[in-house]
Design brief:
D-Maltodextrin-Binding Protein, domain 2; 10-stranded mixed β-sheet; 10 strands; globular
Length: 343
Amino acid sequence: MKKRILATTLLLVISVCSFAGCQSQTGSTTSSNSSSNSSESTAWEPTGPVTIVAGAAAGSGYDTSARSFAQVFNSTGIVEQPVKVINEAGGAGQVAFTAFNGKYGGKNDTLIVASTATISGAVANQWEVGIDDFTPIAKLVNDAFVVVCAEGNTEFDTIDKIAAKLKEDPKSIKFGAAAPPDPDYIGLVLFLQSIDVDIEDVEYVVYDGGGEQLPALMGGHIDVALSGVSEFAAAAESGQVKPVAVASEERMGGPYADTPTFLESGYDLVYGNWRGFWGPKDMSEEAVTYWKNVAKAVVETPEWEEICSNMQWTSEPVIDDYDQWLADFQDEITEALKEAGII
């Protein structure tokens, strides 16, 4: 399968846009009266603590998304009850999603973070659950794919050095990321295709999110780590890692301000991972209305803009039409996984 075909397919469904700052896209997904909608009375609202489940370890994309959503829900006052995050790691999300309804079925005050990885994992690994087993609430952001090495590693500190080394000997570099078919793995497939290297020839070490990748990278167990920009933003800011290349259309800000894009380095790759949240399958209609109104109100706030800037996310809300968007996305990602030879 040619890289350009897969990249085009993925771009259609992941809706990557410029990552210069955090520009909120509007249109059919939000409206000018979003904030007022959240203030309308509903038949339900939480009367006690709210739980957001992150389906991977601390430091993972699921985790950072859950904690960011929790923070902005409370800091804006849009959700008046305290919001806590629970990590349920295992199987790159499979453990948390498979057990979710059994643990939290019937609860209107419990949410789970979903992403591109949720759909690709469920489809490729034939999870016992799928999108029909949940209540989709909102897609909120996109998280660009990034390649990083440990700070001070001059052997792999440019994407050209990595490409040259791979062409010389594909097994000379140990890549660390989540298990296939995670979006990080797909991002690596796309890059390797651009330099005519087969993923089967590469040393790929599986970790359950950025929380495990970082110590492995710092300890020399892997040479290069792959993930979304949000997972390595803090480590890049503190100087623990050096971002090598980011798959955004234009250069980003913050800790990625000096990081070249794949495009400017000569590699035709623009790619990312969306993130949002779902509820249990049997969430009440009143609760669905409440949480959709929360999402609409949150993305209009300065606090949301700040979170996106800090996390290097692009705000891309899909709320009212999320069910249909998600069904279309699943169809498209299924075809993309077939194109990549993953399924």
